[in-house]
Design a protein that fits this description.
The protein is about 100% helix and about 0% strand. The chain has about 110 residues and is mainly alpha-helical.
Length: about 110
């Protein structure tokens, strides 16, 4: 009877240890699966962040190009205004010359 109880006790201990081993293995597998999901989620977040960063850099480049174009346009406008004022100055001088010529012609007629 002692031998049977001893064997039964050993069997119970082995069964409990086996159960604990399987339970530990199951918990480890669940932990591994959870970690894999977390890693995948983090990887996707990182890829999304990299895409966002690339879009941001592209927008910054577009903004820089737009600012350069605006600067060029302002320079062109300044040149056009300077040319306009030069022409107005020339017209004003010519108008003054025409007035002087008209005065001389009027004096000759009198």
């Amino acid at each position: 009877m002692f031998f049977v109880n001893f064997n039964l006790s050993i069997y119970c201990i082995i069964t409990i240890q086996h159960y604990h081993s399987e339970d530990r293995l199951s918990r480890i597998e669940k932990l591994i699966e959870s970690n894999a999901k977390s890693i995948e989620a983090l990887s996707e977040d990182r890829r999304e962040s990299e895409r966002d960063r690339a879009r941001l850099y592209q927008e910054m480049a577009n903004l820089s190009n737009s600012m350069a174009n605006l600067s060029t346009s302002i320079a062109n406008l300044s040149n056009a205004q300077a040319d306009f004022y030069r022409r107005m100055e020339n017209f004003s001088r010519r108008q003054g010359d025409i007035v002087e010529i008209l005065k001389l012609l009027q004096q000759r007629e009198n």
